[in-house]
């Protein structure tokens, strides 16, 4: 029986590192002390693009080249490319088209973009895994998550300006007969919160007609922990239907949006520290790629090994979240 495993994973980020002091000073000049905010979010530093020639596509291309090199593959070996982003450099053609060109992909590659906001890369991994299992002609997939978040961060709002980082992550999925890889996933959607995080705030049509702006993301104040009771319920349901106990999970690669949320999930399930992979203090919040940058760092540090059971969880605007089980 075929399964879908992660062959390789790589990360690209800009060279520029910005530490908390810059943001604390920035907002002090506006009469606000964001020191506690940065502690709650778990930030210390983040990578930011300061090069006008760098964007979400170029970061994705760099990550893709790195992961192909690591896997010993070329673009001709890839059957499907999915590019997940919520800050698309292009709407026409697809951003994935530029990756396909840069890696010299073959003519019959399936190429598409995906946008499920911050949940996008995890959902793309899940959707690609299920599709590959049903299509005998698709044996490999390149999944990229890339958000040029600093481009739309509002200098007057700490939730975006002091919180976001820029990065791209690329994963190669492949079919295998080994008992490993994708296991299952479960979703939660509540569209009542659809207007809390907006970009463009009034929509593209209004912005292009001069009745709105595309400068910055609009983030209305709301209690982000409102999703946690549903998160607990979905984690329990996913484990139960796959006949697993929480103790059997080796590592947790969760949304790096807020350290406070990670700690609440850890406390709720009494998860040991060594199983929690946190990288948001180094990368900032990178959006769609954040759970997989956690996976990458867990693998690189030796904390995640082949055969480990991993639980992914992440949330996108609206809200929608996905919880996914994978055997690495």
TrEMBL record:
- Gene3D superfamilies, per the entry: 3.40.47.10
Keywords, A to Z, come to: Acyltransferase, Transferase
Q: Which Pfam families match?
A: ACP_syn_III (PF08545), ACP_syn_III_C (PF08541)
InterPro entries, per this entry?
ACP_syn_III_C (IPR013747), ACP_syn_III_N (IPR013751), Thiolase-like (IPR016039)
Beta-ketoacyl-[acyl-carrier-protein] synthase III C-terminal domain: residues covered: 239-327
Query: Where is the Beta-ketoacyl-[acyl-carrier-protein] synthase III N-terminal domain positioned along the sequence?
Result: 112-186
Which SUPFAM superfamilies does this entry report, sorted A to Z? Thiolase-like (SSF53901)
Protein name per the record: Ketoacyl-ACP synthase III
Native species: Cytobacillus mangrovibacter
């Amino acid at each position: 029986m075929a399964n879908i495993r992660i062959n390789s994973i790589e990360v690209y980020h800009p060279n520029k590192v910005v530490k908390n002091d810059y943001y604390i000073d920035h907002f002090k000049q506006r009469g606000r002390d964001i020191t506690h905010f940065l502690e709650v979010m778990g930030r210390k530093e983040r990578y930011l693009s300061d090069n006008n020639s760098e964007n979400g596509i170029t970061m994705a291309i760099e990550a893709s080249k790195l992961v192909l090199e690591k896997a010993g593959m070329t673009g001709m070996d890839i059957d499907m490319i999915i590019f997940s982003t919520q800050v698309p450099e292009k709407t026409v053609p697809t951003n994935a088209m530029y990756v396909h060109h840069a890696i010299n992909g073959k003519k019959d590659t399936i190429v598409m973009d995906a946008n499920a906001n911050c949940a996008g890369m995890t959902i793309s991994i899940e959707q690609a895994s299920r599709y590959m299992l049903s299509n005998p002609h698709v044996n490999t997939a390149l999944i990229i998550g890339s958000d040029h978040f600093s481009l739309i961060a509002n200098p007057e709002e700490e939730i975006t300006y002091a919180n976001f980082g820029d990065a791209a992550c690329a994963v190669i999925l492949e079919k295998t007969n080994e008992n490993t890889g994708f296991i299952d996933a479960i979703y939660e959607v509540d569209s009542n919160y659809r207007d809390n995080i907006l970009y463009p705030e009034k929509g593209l049509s209004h912005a292009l007609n001069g009745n709105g702006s595309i400068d910055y993301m609009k983030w209305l104040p709301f209690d982000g922990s409102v999703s946690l009771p549903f998160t607990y319920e979905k984690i329990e349901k996913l484990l139960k239907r796959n006949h697993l106990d929480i103790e059997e999970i080796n590592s947790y690669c969760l949304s790096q949006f807020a350290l406070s949320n990670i700690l609440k999930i850890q406390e709720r399930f009494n998860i040991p520290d060594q199983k929690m992979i946190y990288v948001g203090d180094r990368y900032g919040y990178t959006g769609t790629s954040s759970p997989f940058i956690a996976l990458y760092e867990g693998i690189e540090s030796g904390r995640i090994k082949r055969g480990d059971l991993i639980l992914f969880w992440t949330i996108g605007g609206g809200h929608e979240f996905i919880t996914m089980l994978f055997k690495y």
